[in-house]
Design goal:
single chain, alpha+beta, Aminopeptidase, 2 domains
Length: 259
């Protein structure tokens, strides 16, 4: 394979129809303009999809890259993309036992169970309603990209429950190919969130701390996650408090779609 390109279309819109795209070119085939051709194809596909699905809203293409990948940065800027958001890639070694906070009275901490899948989706949509660029996920999109995806690891995913309501959650993932390539078994925390009405009680720290503690017990050597540098919930401070440090930065670019 020389390269690939993929378009992730939104199933709902809050303010702007943001079409996320991604792709890569094999290192041996770079610097030949293949990436630009793939991105132009993605832009065209995003525009066509936008005209069919949400023409009443403004539309834009979003693409992200690490700030150290100079070729990708130059390509996106050359195609008219503008910087719109910064994200930190954070990691923490999993070598020592991790203490977790006490569970608040009236709440329960449970390992992820499919019986709570829909409640977790609803909680995630509610928790991320005030996050930049986030749109609610319908059941099909949630299943395919979150709890039904191959890397998802329910055994290292935890929920904080108030009755049958998911108040907070932290979901773990593992990419086996990355482990084989690097020799490091990494637990990637793909989603962490707390419903707004439950914030300020340490529930995200409880869920995430339990994921990390379970990761230590099950043989993971490192944990990683990504965070919006301007997160409105103070997530960066939470992660730093659990030992995470910044190992890289990604930039999200956007290009307005012409209707």
């Amino acid at each position: 394979m020389v390269g690939y390109a993929r378009l992730h279309a939104s199933t709902s819109v809050v303010d702007v129809d943001r079409v996320q795209v991604e792709g890569t070119v094999h290192p041996e085939w770079r610097r030949r303009g293949i990436g630009a051709v793939l991105m132009q194809w993605l832009i065209q596909g995003a525009a066509e999809h936008h005209r069919v699905t949400f023409p009443e809203h403004a539309g834009e293409v979003r693409a992200s890259t690490k700030d150290t990948v100079v070729g990708a940065v130059q390509m996106l800027q050359g195609l008219g993309f503008e910087e719109s958001r910064y994200f930190f890639d954070m990691k923490v070694p999993l070598a020592e036992p991790i203490a977790t906070p006490a569970i608040p009275d009236g709440l329960r901490l449970v390992r992820f169970d499919p019986a709570y899948d829909e409640a977790t989706r609803v909680a995630h949509n509610a928790a991320f309603l005030d996050h930049w660029g986030s749109t609610p996920r319908d059941p099909a999109a949630w299943k395919s990209s979150v709890t039904g995806s191959r890397p998802f690891r329910p055994e290292v995913s935890f929920l904080v429950l108030d009755g049958d309501t998911v108040a907070a959650y932290a979901l773990g993932y593992e990419w086996v190919a990355d482990t084989e390539a690097t020799g490091i078994r990494e637990l990637y925390v793909g989603l962490v969130g707390t419903r707004r009405e439950y914030r300020g009680r340490g529930l995200a720290r409880l869920a995430l701390g339990t994921v990390l503690a379970e990761g230590v017990q099950t043989g993971y050597q490192r944990a990683a996650l990504g965070v919006d540098a301007d997160s409105p919930t103070g997530a960066l401070g939470l992660y730093e408090g659990l030992g995470f440090s910044v190992h890289g930065r990604s930039i999200t670019y956007r290009l307005q779609l012409e209707v």
